[in-house]
Write a structure and sequence with these properties.
Helix content: 10-25%
Strand order of the largest sheet: 1-2-3-5-4
Shape: flat
Number of strands: 13
Largest sheet: 5 strands, mixed, barrel
Strand content: 35-45%
Number of helices: 5
Distance between the termini: 20 Å
Structural class: alpha+beta
Radius of gyration: 20 Å
Amino acid sequence: MIMKKTGLAVFFAALMSVLGLTSCLNGDGDTSGVGQAWVKVSGFPGFYTFTTADGYTINPTNQSVLTSKLGADYAYLIYQYDETSLVEGSKEMNVALTGCMPIKTANAYSSVEQMDSLYANAPLSSVSEQTGPLFWDKENVFVPISYYITQTSDDTAKNTELNKHNFQIYYDVNGGSDTELVLKLRHNVADPDNNSKRLVSVWEYKHFNLAQALNAFSMAKGRQPSTISIEYEKGYSGDYTAGNIQLTKHSIDYQSILDALNSSQK
């Protein structure tokens, strides 16, 4: 069935339990199904289309639910579809969206310690909530970032607070071993004087393109890394002081991702 090929299952088998990538016949003549997928975004409000990592096009039939510009290159979709509308051999399907989470792109820069220390002014809680970092392909990764915000009274206030938080990755091809690429994920807030009031933990996915970092590593080491480690400043609240900050690493078996990608292309 089409749905069994949707999303990032070729890269992470464990992701199947999160995405639920199987169409479902409910019995009693009910041919409705529910799907979830990570997708690349094309178009604009009223005319959006979405593409999965393995080339399927998802067309929402209820464009009106996307009331504003997504403002992201990638998204996570939840949708419903009619099993009888699927065409054998087709790589296109029409769906009714029930949820859409935009995944905004953050920046990756070369590692410059002075820039690092000037930029970072707030801790993170984790980079491994839910499923951990997920690769769309060998260069594009979705990182689940958990961090602290102030208590807010409504959605408007929460969005104002969330917009104060930014994230960047610095890379240093000589920062690890000859097989490890170290990425330094750093957090910046617009008003660090309020960090002591940031006690509420939230998380969201951010998209990073690692092409520049991977190319630099390959030129320096003559090979691709087998491990990618994300180093971040872990805190147990939003307070950015030495007593609350602990440098922490989350390591990814990047070789297994390359192997899965190569296998899927055979």
